[in-house]
Structure formats: structure tokens, C-alpha cells
């Protein structure tokens, strides 16, 4: 009956290797599909989140534009409403001067001046008759022009901070030309209020105007100019005003803590930027109509708060975890494939071992049967012939016994030896084993020479040295040439027992000197002559159990191999947990 470690060989190799490999590859494929599908789901969620946030930005831009339009309409109606007759015409022959528009601003009793309530005060008022080059300008003579409006008080000396002054020739020319061109191009009277933004050599010019057609055919244009500071204040006030964003959107934060706004004119010049340098893909753009100055508004959701705007938060990316999972699965698959390949190689080696052992067993059994048949049929007629046949039977029985011992010992490989070590004279043991092996060596015409330089006594397990030396002698005789001399030496040096077996064979190449100690692995020369491939493995196991070392080296410059075994004279731990005691007393022969 085969030992347990060989029963696996009854399974077909294709079933033991290919099917698990296919299963592993399939598991990797399924894991990869799961990773791809999960990542697709994450990307889909992220795309939905990004789309929702961009829609939030679009809503914010639209809301800002609506609030800005409403504020501009209220502001301009307050500043220019007195000269806006709607669908009616101006019938009085008296045409209001530009400076008179300030009187229609609300009166503030605290400052005793006129002051806009729905936004910043205009810096100047102006009036123009279409077809004329003369621009009538109304200046603010209040001590603090940013605070209120007066036109009847003399101009302060020196001029107050914020005083706008009269228009430059370039600014007057730009206003006259722009207004005339826009109104004539319209073809019909515009009854509302229009914001214009322009650039002159003196800088940006922001103004609003309305038309006042007269009953005798003239068209009067009245307007108000606003400083850049006033426009910035207006645009910032819209961002900070209430109702711009719903409470569920801001969650108690200021609008500018959630949203950044940029306003530019049609030429791309920046009029307002609440967060200079901020970049984000969560941005929306909207253009105001021409009557609102064709301003461009960019609304940007701040990236640091974008995740809080989605119910439950933005879905986190699981890509690193999924890729790590895929990498782990691939690594495990690689390990498993390598293990399967190793198992396949081991199965092949074990199959070779079974074949070799079967051959090794068949040879002595055939010899024993042959000589027994010779004796049974009476073909050995003389006592010498019968003794010769019995000697062959004894030799082949010894070889068979040695082979079975190796197989049995190898079947217990790695389990540990529980037998108790006893003192033994190594020289006597070596001489006994060499004498036992001489008939086997003689069958191959090999001569054994033993050199005993010392006679140490060591505590060793029963038959341990015999297993070591018999395997080394068998290895030397089997793979060496016929009629060679195998030399066995025993000595003590530096507190160690040294046992060596040297043959006259081809030797062991350097690249194979470690490989030959592994189970089932043999060198190139050994493979050509058969063998079980476990003898040297048993040697190393027994030697290491006794705390020793073993290796192979060239026997001489002419070739051959010398196998050396060293055993310490001091006590060493045994595999059963007890100490293997040695006797340090020995003598030279």
C-alpha cells in the first residue's frame, strides 16, 4: 500500500492542475468584472453628483441675474423715473436740465440732502438731445458725494473726496456717439431703462439711461453715471442679499461662503470678483440681456463645500480599495498558480519516484526469484554452487532491505524521531556498515577502503549512522565507475566528528551541489542511472536531527565527489525536546 503522500498521485494531473488554474483565472476575471462594475457605478454616482452641483451653480447664476435685474430696475427707476413717461410723450416746452434730476431723488431729513434708497448714489447726471453734440452734465456739490446729493450749493473748496467732476472730452464723445448710435439703431422708442458699460481712455464708464420723447419730435436722453466703486458695491450687495439662495442650500452659511461670483462686461473686463484666483469645475455662466449691459455672470460652487450640498454627501471613491482588492486577488492567484506548478512538478517527481522504486524493488526480487528457482530445480549440483546462489540471495535481500528502510524512513519525513539516543562508538559502527555493504559493492566490482583516524563515542539514535553511511556508499557505488575505489574516512577536528565518503565518479557540478539534497531531485549524471532520489534527503535529515552538517565537494583534481558529514561532540537538542548527549571521550587509533 502506498504511503499517504503518494496516494494523491492517483488523481489525473490535468484534473489536479488545469481545473484549479481555470477556477483561479475565472475568479480573477470575476473580481476584475466586479471592480469594473463597481467603479462604473461610482463614476455614475459621481457624474450625477457633478451634474447636480453644476445645476446648483446654474440656478445660483440665474438667481443672481434675477436679483441684479430687479435691483437695477428699482435703482434706475428711483434715479431716472421722473423723466420716464412710459408710453406718453413730454408735452411741456420746458426741458428739464440734467442737474434737476437730483431733485427727484428721495429727500433725507437727516443729511438735508437727496439720497438714493435702493442702491448707491449716481456720481453724475447727464442729458442729451438726439442729433445734438452737446452733453448736459449735472454735478453733485454735496460735501460728501458718496453720502448724498446736492446741486444748489456752491461747489466745495477744496473738492470733497469722491467728487466725480465734469466729463472729459473723450468721455463726452463716447457717451454721445454710443447713445446716438444705439437709439437710432433701435428704430423705436425704448420705454424702459438701459445699462451701458464702456471703456474710454480714462477708464471704465458705467451709465444708465432712459428716453423721453417729446410731442414736437425730439428725443431726449437722460442718464446717470455710476462710479466703479458704486457698481462693485451694488454687485457685492446682490451676493450678500437675502433670498439669493434657499436656506437648504446655504445651511446657515453666508452666500459667499458657498458661492463665488464674477461679473464681466462684454469685452471681458472684470467688474466684480468675490473670490479672485478660485477655480472649480462646478461653474455656470449666464449673460444678461443688452438692456442690462450684456454683463456676463459666472457662478462657482466652492469646492470645499460642494460635498455638503448633496443629501448624504458626495459618494466617496472606492477606486483605491477596489484596485487593492484586484491586486490582492491577482497576487493570490499568482501564488496559487505557482503553488499548482510546484505541485505539478512534485507530482511528476513523485511519479518518477514510484517508477524508480518499483524498478529498484523489481531488480532484487527478480534476482532472488531466479536463484531460488535455481535451487528449487536442483540446478546447483555442488555445495559451492548452492553457497554461491545463497550468497546472491543474501546480497539481494540486503539490498531490498536497505531500499525498504529508505522508503519507510522517507514516509516519516518531517514527523520527528521519538527514539532515545544512546552512546555508540562511531568507528565500530562505520566498520560494521562498510563490511555489510562490501557484497553490494563487489557486485559492481567496487573496492571499499575505510580509514579510521579516531574512535569517538557519540549519543545517536539507533541505526542513524547506518542510514547515513549506507546511503552515501550506495550513492558512491551506483554513480561511480566499475572497478573504482570508494574511500571512507572517520576523523575528529575542532570538536567535530568528520565522516567522508569519496568516489571516483564524474563528480557533482557546482550548480547541482545544493539541489541533490532535495527530495526526488537528482543530478544529470544520476538521472541517467536511475535511483529513487531520496537517499541524500534522508542523509541530510538524519544529520540535521543530530545537529550536524553535510555537503559535497570535489574528491580530487582528477574528479570524483566527496560527501562530508560533521557531527558535534557537544550535546545538541533532539526533535523530541530532549538533549542528545555525547561522550567527549575518544581516542586516536
What do these coordinates show?
The radius of gyration is 54 Å and the shape is rod-shaped. It is built from 13 helices and 21 strands. With 589 residues, the protein is an alpha+beta fold. Strand 6 and strand 7 form a beta hairpin. It folds into two domains: 296 residues, no CATH class; 171 residues, Heat Shock Protein 90, CATH 3.30.565.10. Helix 2 packs antiparallel against helix 8 and helix 11 runs antiparallel to helix 13. Strands 4-3-7-6-5 form a five-stranded antiparallel β-sheet, with helices on both faces. The protein has a five-stranded mixed β-sheet with strand order 13-15-16-18-17. It has a four-stranded antiparallel β-sheet with strand order 9-8-11-10.
Please summarize what this structure is.
With 589 residues, this protein is α+β, with helices and mostly antiparallel strands. The chain is built from 13 helices and 21 strands.
Amino acid at each position: 500500500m502506498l504511503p499517504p503522500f503518494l496516494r494523491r498521485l492517483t488523481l489525473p494531473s490535468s484534473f489536479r492542475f488545469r481545473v484549479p488554474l481555470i477556477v483561479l483565472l475565472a475568479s480573477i476575471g470575476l473580481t476584475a468584472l466586479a471592480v469594473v462594475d463597481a467603479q462604473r457605478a461610482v463614476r455614475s454616482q459621481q457624474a450625477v453628483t457633478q451634474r447636480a452641483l453644476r445645476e446648483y451653480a446654474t440656478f445660483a447664476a440665474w438667481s443672481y441675474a434675477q436679483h441684479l435685474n430687479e435691483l437695477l430696475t428699482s435703482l434706475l427707476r428711483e434715479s431716472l423715473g421722473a423723466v420716464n413717461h412710459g408710453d406718453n410723450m413730454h408735452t411741456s416746452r420746458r426741458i428739464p436740465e440734467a442737474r434737476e434730476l437730483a431733485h427727484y431723488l428721495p429727500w433725507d431729513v437727516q443729511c438735508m440732502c437727496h439720497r438714493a434708497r435702493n442702491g448707491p448714489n449716481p456720481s453724475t447726471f447727464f442729458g442729451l438731445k438726439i442729433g445734438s453734440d452737446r452733453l448736459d452734465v449735472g454735478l453733485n456739490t454735496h460735501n460728501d458725494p458718496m453720502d448724498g446729493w446736492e446741486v444748489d450749493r456752491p461747489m466745495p473748496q477744496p473738492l470733497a473726496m469722491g467728487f466725480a467732476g465734469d466729463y472729459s472730452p473723450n468721455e463726452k464723445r463716447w457717451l454721445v456717439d454710443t447713445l446716438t448710435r444705439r437709439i437710432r439703431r433701435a428704430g423705436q422708442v425704448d420705454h424702459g431703462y438701459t445699462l451701458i458699460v464702456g471703456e474710454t481712455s480714462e477708464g471704465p464708464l458705467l451709465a444708465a439711461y432712459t428716453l423721453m420723447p417729446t410731442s414736437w419730435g425730439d428725443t431726449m436722453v437722460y442718464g446717470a453715471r455710476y462710479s466703479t466703486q458704486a457698481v462693485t458695491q451694488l454687485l457685492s450687495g446682490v451676493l450678500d442679499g437675502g433670498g439669493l439662495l434657499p436656506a437648504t442650500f446655504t445651511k446657515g452659511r453666508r452666500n459667499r461662503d458657498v458661492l463665488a461670483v464674477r461679473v464681466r462686461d462684454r469685452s471681458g473686463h472684470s467688474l466684480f470678483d468675490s473670490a479672485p484666483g478660485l477655480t472649480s469645475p462646478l461653474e455656470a455662466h449666464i449673460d444678461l440681456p443688452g438692456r442690462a449691459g450684456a454683463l456676463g455672470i459666472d457662478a462657482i460652487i466652492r469646492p470645499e463645500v460642494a460635498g455638503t450640498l448633496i443629501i448624504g454627501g458626495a459618494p466617496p471613491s472606492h477606486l483605491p480599495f477596489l484596485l487593492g482588492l484586484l491586486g490582492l486577488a491577482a497576487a493570490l492567484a499568482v501564488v496559487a498558480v505557482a503553488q499548482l506548478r510546484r505541485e505539478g512538478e512534485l507530482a511528476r517527481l513523485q511519479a518518477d519516484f514510484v517508477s524508480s522504486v518499483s524498478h529498484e524493488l523489481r531488480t532484487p526480487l527478480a534476482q532472488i526469484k531466479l536463484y531460488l528457482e535455481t535451487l528449487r530445480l536442483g540446478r546447483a549440483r555442488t555445495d559451492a554452487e548452492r553457497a554461491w546462489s545463497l550468497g546472491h540471495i543474501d546480497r539481494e535481500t540486503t539490498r531490498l532491505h536497505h531500499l525498504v528502510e529508505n522508503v519507510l524512513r522517507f514516509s516519516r519525513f518531517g514527523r520527528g524521531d521519538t527514539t532515545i539516543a544512546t552512546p555508540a562508538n562511531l568507528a565500530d559502527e562505520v566498520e560494521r556498515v562498510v563490511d555489510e555493504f562490501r557484497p553490494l559493492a563487489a557486485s559492481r566490482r567496487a573496492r571499499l577502503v575505510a580509514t579510521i583516524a579516531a574512535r569517538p563515542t557519540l549519543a545517536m539514535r539507533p541505526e542513524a549512522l547506518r542510514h547515513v553511511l549506507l546511503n552515501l556508499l550506495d550513492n558512491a557505488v551506483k554513480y561511480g565507475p566499475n572497478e573504482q575505489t570508494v574511500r571512507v574516512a572517520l576523523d575528529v577536528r575542532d570538536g567535530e566528528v568528520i565522516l567522508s565518503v569519496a568516489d571516483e565518479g564524474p563528480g557533482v557540478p557546482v550548480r547541482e551541489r545544493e539541489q541533490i539534497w532535495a527530495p526526488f531531485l537528482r543530478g544529470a549524471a544520476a538521472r541517467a542511472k536511475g535511483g529513487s532520489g531520496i537517499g541524500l534527503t534522508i542523509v541530510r535529515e538524519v544529520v540535521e536531527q543530530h545537529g550536524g552538517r553535510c555537503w559535497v565537494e570535489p574528491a580530487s583534481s582528477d574528479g570524483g565527489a566527496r560527501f562530508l558529514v560533521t557531527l558535534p561532540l557537544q550535546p545538541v537538542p533532539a526533535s523530541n525536546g530532549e538533549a542528545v548527549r555525547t561522550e567527549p571521550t575518544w581516542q586516536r587509533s
